[in-house]
Design a protein that fits this description.
single chain; 33% helix; two-stranded antiparallel ribbon; Archaeosine Trna-guanine Transglycosylase, Chain: A, domain 4; 215 residues; Lon_prtase_N
Length: 215
């Protein structure tokens, strides 16, 4: 996949509001599309040069409507396959976070938004480093978290994984609440994301609720 730069990023993108589904720059997210509106979105995206879909968490407004969070992450469609019954399995490669400026109204069956890419230039660059990362301590704590949640993983791969790939993959895969995933997305650097991830893991091990932590 060729690298994208700021000139490639469009001002308007389709957005896929999927609670709990987190995408981060330079990470990959598999998605299963079956609703007609998202099948239409996918077919429209394939006709563009950028092939970007914005993944965004939602939160409820006082009137009960689902509102988009201010920050999401756009992914480029890099792989897809169609099933016999017309569904799609696709893979998004995380390109850059964005800020939602406003939703676009129109005749599209799916949601679109005008977005700003300013402030997220680092997302388009090289993988980030975390110079203060204590991998052994982190993996020990992670092991306790996985035991509590009856999760399994290839620990040898985790020991050898690139730091950014490790932190971002775990941020995406661990069973956190949508607001917690949003906090991981909005972390300004890899170090702060790792610190947030560790805080969430430790809090879960102490039996705390996400609502307590967000307050």
């Amino acid at each position: 996949m060729r690298m994208m730069n700021s000139a490639d990023l469009p001002a308007t993108i389709p957005v896929f509001p999927l609670p709990g589904a987190l995408l981060l720059p330079r990470a990959r997210l598999p998605l299963h599309l079956f609703e007609p509106r998202y099948l239409q979105m996918f077919e429209d995206v394939l006709k563009t040069s950028h092939r970007l879909i914005g993944m965004v968490q939602t939160h409820k407004k006082p009137n009960g409507d689902e509102q988009l969070h201010a920050i999401g992450c756009a992914g480029r469609v890099t792989q897809f396959s169609e099933t016999e019954d017309g569904r799609y399995m696709i893979t998004l490669a995380g390109i850059s976070r964005f800020r939602v400026e406003k939703e676009v109204t129109g005749f599209s069956p799916y949601r679109k938004a005008e977005v700003s890419w300013e402030g997220f230039e680092r997302d388009l660059g090289k993988p980030e480093q975390d110079d203060t990362f204590d991998r052994e301590m982190f993996l020990n704590t992670l092991g306790k978290f996985f035991d509590v949640h009856d999760l399994r993983t290839d620990w040898e791969s985790l020991k050898d994984a690139d730091t950014e790939l490790l932190i971002n993959s775990l941020s995406m895969l661990c069973p956190f609440e949508p607001e917690e995933k949003q906090a991981l997305l909005e972390a300004p650097s890899l170090t702060t994301r790792r610190e947030t991830l560790m805080t969430l893991i430790e809090f879960a091990l102490r039996g705390g609720s996400s609502e307590e932590m967000i307050q």
